[in-house]
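Q: Given only this backbone (248 positions), what sequence would you predict?
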């Protein structure tokens, strides 16, 4: 199988799913495709919404002592939680990360799905996960974490794509190079360009996944919907689910 690396999913974390999930759905014109009972063993509940072929997930802890709960406490709820990539060989990417001093935090084996999660402290800014689903090399193929019919929930009338992810760091170039080595994509300046999304690294006080950049059909309509939900809009962006939603 030819090597490939694509952004598959972005995971945000919130103290509760409501109203974050319903606000995302209504403002961005997206549909929840799945709520995964498998995350309950981690003390979490979740909802996933497809943005074209990238999944946007929100998780919320329902008991004390979860990793997600600690993340909220540590960050004050600011910053995205996970960047999840699909690739041809997650184990190889995991071994490569280990050789860089990045520890494996968790391995998920639910055939035909296999995922390798790396330790967020070693990744810096957010969790990184690599996964592969047997027989799903078609970008519209099976992806068990998103449920059996996720493709049917893709809507493009309002939001067309999740085009970019902004990462903040006091040393953006250093973080870009670090993530580039983990992911196996050489940075172009302070950017990592994947076939379906670009990670941009910018100067900031702390290391976080700070913004998601969406291509939409009508910028004014989305910003109006955000205001109507009580979100403060500045320019072409607003804060939701711990990250800045930026539309163009």
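A: Predicted residues:
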């Amino acid at each position: 199988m030819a090597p490939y690396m694509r952004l598959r999913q972005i995971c945000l974390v919130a103290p509760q799913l409501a109203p974050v999930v319903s606000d995302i759905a209504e403002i961005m014109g997206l549909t929840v495709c799945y709520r995964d009972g498998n995350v309950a063993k981690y003390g979490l509940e979740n909802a996933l919404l497809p943005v074209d072929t990238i999944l946007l997930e929100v998780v919320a802890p329902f008991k004390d002592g979860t990793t997600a709960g600690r993340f909220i406490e540590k960050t004050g709820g600011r910053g995205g939680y996970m960047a999840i990539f699909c690739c041809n060989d997650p184990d190889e990417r995991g071994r490569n990360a280990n050789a860089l001093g990045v520890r494996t935090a968790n391995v998920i084996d639910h055939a035909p799905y296999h995922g390798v999660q790396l330790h967020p402290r070693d990744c810096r800014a957010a969790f990184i996960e690599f996964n592969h689903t047997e027989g799903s090399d078609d970008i519209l193929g099976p992806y068990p974490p998103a449920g059996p019919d996720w493709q049917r929930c893709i809507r493009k009338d309002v939001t067309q794509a999740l085009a970019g992810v902004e990462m903040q760091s006091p040393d953006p170039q250093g973080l870009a190079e670090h993530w580039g080595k983990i992911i196996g994509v050489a940075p172009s300046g302070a950017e990592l360009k994947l076939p379906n999304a670009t990670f941009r690294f910018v100067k900031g006080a702390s290391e976080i996944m700070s913004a998601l950049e969406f291509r939409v059909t009508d910028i004014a309509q989305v910003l109006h919907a955000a205001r109507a939900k009580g979100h403060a809009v500045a320019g072409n962006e607003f804060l939701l689910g711990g990250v800045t939603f930026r539309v163009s």
